[in-house]
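Problem statement: downstream parser choked on a complex file, so we are re-checking the raw output for the iron/sulfur cluster run. The parser issue turned out to be on our end (a line-ending mismatch), but while we're here, posting the original submission so the record is complete.
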Amino acid sequence: MSLLTAVNDTWRGFKSLLTGMRITFGEAVKPPITVQYPRETLKMPERFRGHVKLLLDDETGRSRCTACGLCVRACPSNCIIVAGEKREGEKKKSVTEYHLDFTTCSLCGSCVEACPSDAIAYSKDYNKVSLDRGDFDHMDLVKNLQKEAEVWAQTHPQAVPPAPPADSAAAPAPAPKPTGEEAKSS
Ligand code: SF4
Ligand code: SF4
């Protein structure tokens, strides 16, 4: 090996070392992108599809669902059960029972599109886990909404308190998967 070759090799090695160090130090001073889950959670993008949930009407603190059954008929997986009742003085029904079988839901979105009242949407809940299958095959969306309604009531003290949901303990056990005819009669 000639002296010139040795000098060239040494210079190339030194340049490579400097390049590596520049990249290393550049990355070291960047803010961390690691999310310290579960102490921190990600903010889901707008188009994220978590399980279907009932929405709270910010004006009334109640669900806008009228138990019309259109989402039930639109669902290709038959995984929605809806029931409602007409309260005194109200023109439309109010939802009293809304069960979702999330184990068979394909998140296709047909129910959300079919709803004429904008009463349901995808949740942003991406870390739903359980050891109990029952937590997913009969998700009680009315009960879940009640937690939001309680928060709403605290922030709207002047508003009429939201009507309580049907007592899930007293409510009839969810029926077998509904047919289109059952949905019409609910
Ligand atoms: S997203 Fe699709 S499969 Fe899931 S409940 Fe709605 S219509 Fe049914
Ligand atoms: S289509 Fe909308 S209003 Fe009708 S039952 Fe379903 S969620 Fe309720």
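For whoever reads this later: Residues 71 and 113 are 8 Å apart (CA to CA).
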